[in-house]
Amino acid sequence: MAEMLKIQEEIKSQVEAKKAEAERLAKEKAEEEQKMQDIFSIKESLENNLTSHLSSEKALKEEKLALEAKLAEMLKIQEEIKSQVEAKKAEAERLAKEKAEEEQKMQDIFSIKESLENNLTSHLSSEKALKEEKLALESKLAEMLKVQEEEKAKAERLAKEKADAEAKAKAEAENKIAEKKLSDVFALTHVAFKFNSMDLTDNSKKLLDRAANTIKKYPQFTYIIKGYTDNRGRAEYNLKLSGQRANKVREYLISQGVDAGLLTSKGFGEENPIASNDTAEGRKKNRRVVFEIVK
């Protein structure tokens, strides 16, 4: 009888644990919905900026295209988060169903216990019969305990798999948002150099300060800093100069508190021009340093 009460308490603890898990999932669902609300706020802010801050027709068109692209990315992230919320909602419903099934099993065990107790009282008249029935009951109880342990192990395995999947999905969603923020900052970090120079201007330092602050927020990534030159001068010299420029940017970021292990630098010389080298403006654009996120 004491063993039956112990089994009852263990099953009751499992039911309570699954109830707590369902409540935790409901809380996570509310947090995910808050994230979606934040995304809607960002979307509204971007739309307001699109209306109020562009003064010229040309700037309006260019900024509109950029904002539309950002909105598309944000909506994509929003849809991904929405899918995760729906998945968690389905998981909560599954846990609620399992809780109901466990409660039914518990009720069945109570019924079996009551039936066994009644049988023990009313149908065993001799000492020999009592001993035989006791052995049979102990065998049934051992079998029930074995089934219970198997179900418990299965539930723990499923819970671990679910937790691992949720952690992976959460990390992937957070990394996507982080990459978007980093890409936005890097797109605005136009580090340029004068001809035949690797000295940073004050404006370039301000842009790099902002980049450094953002990089420090996301230490899960590593970054490669790529240096380029225009096509004036010898190719070997330009390759060396571009490497020095990229390393100059790396050293400045480290001086602003960025972990040196997150940064590598490399020069590419005249390779991959982004503008024509036939004009002064084009050559100015080609004398640049860009950032690349390495996962």
Provide a brief overview of the structure.
The chain has 295 residues and is of the alpha+beta class. Helix content is 76%, strand content 7%. Helix 1 (2-52) packs parallel to helix 3 (127-188) and helix 4 (202-217) crosses helix 5.
Spatial gap, N to C terminus: 59 Å
Rg over C-alpha atoms, rounded to the nearest angstrom:
33 Å
Domains counted in the coordinates: how many? 2
What proportion strand? 5-15%
Order of helices and strands: HHHEHEHEHE
Helix content: over 70%
Oligomer: single chain
Structural class comes to alpha+beta
Shape: elongated
**Total count of helical runs of at least 4 residues:** 6
Q: Using DSSP, what is the number of strands?
A: 4
List the strand order in the largest sheet: 1-4-2-3
- What composes the largest sheet? 4 strands, mixed
Low-confidence sequence ranges? none
Mean pLDDT metric: 83
